[in-house]
Design a protein that fits this description.
heterodimer; A: alpha+beta; six-stranded antiparallel beta sheet; B: alpha/beta; 10 helices; about 35% helix; globular
Chain lengths: ~230, ~280
């Protein structure tokens, strides 16, 4: 059956330089990624699936994971804009977060999203307040360890805070790498899961937080979020 | 312990002022010509906190539909309201003639570069988050967390209302440290310069070396901005400015942190090219 209303798709594409195509239906340029960074296990699970949908809005989300030496934890900075470059306000960003996550935020310990200056770029970003990180990381880490899963701090942290700001990073993907070749949305149910794919090798290869000397090491993730009506 | 002389330094820092002249940008639409507005700006405060009068002055000659969020620029560069006024001046205009000529804008807010500042509570939130971050560095956050909400409020009200005694009654707690440590855990500081894309440099830096030596401003710079430290016979390439003065490089960084920090508890250091004459 088909989903009613809006389907949200999230793509994670690590970038060294900016993505050249920002339109739906174009393939993501591979040459931006260094060969050793991404050893993609490319499974084109969308094979044979027809994509027919009407695109309503395409937004460009940019997520940066930085390390705060003051608090000695990772901090999530992000900004969003329309494809023609108009920045989204915090209210608009909120309206694109799935209602379930909005609820979780209201209950959750991670209180505030505020506008902040990006420590390396000097530009306006939104930042997820880091002060309760220890509090919610502990159970997530313990759970992963109890299930005997290899734990990567950044991935675990991102999977907890990410959904709060519209970034889906299921823990189950942490030991695999998948990559979506096409940037368009699928309207059918099975393909929804398949298209929630992302590359984590880049994250896994990033320097371990606690070893870094630099106050702010930067791991950039560029994500396209788009909605379509089936 | 704070010595009597040192307390004078605290007052001098707090009451530092910069004479400024605010001019409406020719790009703005007015009903009649706008006169410039002169104001003494507190070095330790924030532009959006102290310019209500500037806004009122220019609104008199403008139509409501031509007015959006007010912002400032200097020689084409948008001024970041979340930096203390003194830092902005030292960084951009310290070697130019007074008054500081600031341009006022009401349209075309530079969304990419400037943070919005829609009310004083935004400034308060920013100010308090700086203080918390500074305490995280100095005391692992223990002092600020032990304070009550009303104590935090007192710090903010002291700044907002220009009340030195009210502010320092609370702030002195943030300037204490266990005697056996010899200083704070890490010094809260940021180094600014206009010649780089990076907005500032901030790293972990202990005020006392592992061997127990008191580290100086010179030691900090040697590690983080060696170009600013040159030998006696070499011509000076950069000026290292804090609150509009160039402290001796031999000054202990712990002392600087206790006495020349801004109310946000950070030591803001501006590195500018030395004047050529």
């Amino acid at each position: 059956g088909t989903d009613e209303g809006f389907i949200k798709k999230t793509l994670l594409i690590p970038i060294k330089s900016s993505i050249s195509h920002q339109q739906l239906g174009c393939s993501i340029q591979d040459e931006n990624m260094a060969a050793d960074d991404i050893q993609a296990n490319v499974e084109d699970e969308t094979a044979g699936v027809q994509a027919v949908c009407e695109i309503h809005a395409v937004l460009r989300y940019e997520y940066h994971v930085l390390y705060s030496c003051s608090y000695q934890i990772p901090v999530l900075y992000f900004r969003a804009s329309t494809l023609d470059g108009r920045p989204l306000s915090l209210e608009e960003v909120w309206s694109y977060v799935h209602p379930n996550y909005r609820q979780r935020l209201q209950q959750g310990p991670w209180d505030t999203l505020t506008q902040q200056e990006h420590p390396l770029l000097g530009q306006a970003f939104f930042m997820l307040h880091p002060c309760r990180t220890e509090e919610f990381m502990k159970p997530a880490l313990e759970l992963a360890q109890a299930e005997n899963k290899k734990v990567n701090y950044i991935v675990t942290w991102l999977s907890v805070v990410g959904p709060v700001v519209g970034l889906d990073v299921p823990l189950s993907y942490s030991t695999e790498t998948q990559r979506i070749r096409r940037g368009h949305a699928e309207g059918l149910k099975g393909a929804k899961e398949a298209s929630e794919a992302f590359i984590l090798k880049a994250l896994l290869k990033s320097p371990q937080c606690r070893d870094t000397e630099d106050c702010y090491s930067n791991i950039s993730l560029e994500v396209f979020v788009f909605s379509c009506v089936v | 312990m704070i010595m009597a002389d040192d307390k004078d330094v605290l007052r001098d820092v707090w009451f530092g002022r910069i004479p400024a002249c605010f001019t409406l940008s020719p790009e703005e639409t007015t009903e009649r010509e706008a006169e410039p507005y002169y104001l003494l700006l507190p070095r330790v405060s924030y532009l959006t906190l102290v310019t209500d009068k500037v806004k009122k002055h220019f609104l008199k000659v403008m139509k409501a539909e031509d007015v959006e969020e007010m912002w400032f620029e200097y020689e084409g560069t948008p001024l970041k309201w979340h930096y203390p006024i003194g830092v902005l001046f030292d960084l951009h205009a310290s070697n130019t003639a007074l008054p500081w000529n600031v341009t006022v804008r009401f349209k075309n807010f530079p969304e990419r570069d400037l943070l919005h500042c829609t009310s004083n509570s935004v400034i308060e939130a920013h100010f308090m988050s700086c203080i918390k971050e500074a305490d995280a560095l100095k005391h692992k956050g223990q002092v600020i967390n032990d304070m009550q909400k009303k104590d935090h409020k007192q710090l903010w009200m002291g700044l907002q209302n220009d009340k030195f005694d009210q502010f320092w009654a609370m702030n002195r707690k943030l300037m204490e440290y266990p005697t056996e440590e010899g200083g704070f855990r890490y010094i809260p500081f940021r180094i600014y310069q206009t010649m780089s894309d990076r907005p500032f440099i901030q790293k972990l830096f202990r005020p006392v070396s592992p061997e127990g030596h008191t580290l100086t401003l010179g030691d900090l710079l040697k590690e983080l901005f060696p170009a600013a430290v040159c030998a006696e016979d070499e011509p000076k390439r950069f000026q290292v400015m804090i609150h509009g003065i160039e402290p001796l490089l031999e000054t202990p960084i712990q002392w600087l942190s206790e006495h020349l920090s801004h109310p946000d508890n950070f030591l803001h250091i501006s590195i500018i090219p030395a004047p050529s004459d």
